[in-house]
Design goal:
Length: 179
Amino acid sequence: MDTLSYVAKSATPMLFLLVAVVGALVGTRRHPERTPAETWVRWWAVSALGCGSLWMTLSFLLMPATMADAIGFTRTPFMFEIAFANLALAVLAFRARTAPARERLTAGLAAGAFLWGATIGHLYQWFANGDHHAGNTGGILVYDVLVPAIMIVLARRAGHSRREPAVAASGQSPAISTR
C-alpha cells in the first residue's frame, strides 16, 4: 500500500472528530442559550460517536472484505458481530443528543467498554504480530481512545452546567443532573 493510500485509510476515523469539533465551535455561537458543554456534548455524541459508529456498522456489513484488508485480518464471522456492536454505540450516541446527563455518561462508558477493548486488541496485534495496517494502527487508535474519553468528560461537564440555580447557589456538589 502506498503512503497516500495508507494515510487516507488511517485518517478516515478522524473526519468524524473534525466534524464534531467544527460543528461544536459553530454551534456555540449559533446557540448562545445553551452552555458550551451542552453544545459540545451534542455534537460529540452525534458526529464523533454516532456517525463514526454508524460508518463502522455499514462498512463491516457492506464491505467486509475491504474492512478485513484494512485491519490486516482475513474475513471472519466476528465482523458481523463487530458491525452490530457499533450499531449499538450509534443508537446510544444518537439518543444521547437529547438525553439526560446520566444517559450521556452511560453512552460514553459503553463506548469506552467496547472501544478501549478494541484498542487493547489493536495494540496487541501491532506489537505481537507487527500488524501496521491502516485499520489497525494510526487514526483508529486515536479514535478508539479519544471518543469515549471525551464523551465521558463532556457528559459530566454538561451535567454539571445544567444544575438547578438553587443547588448551585447552595454550594452542594450533587451527582450528575438527570434533567
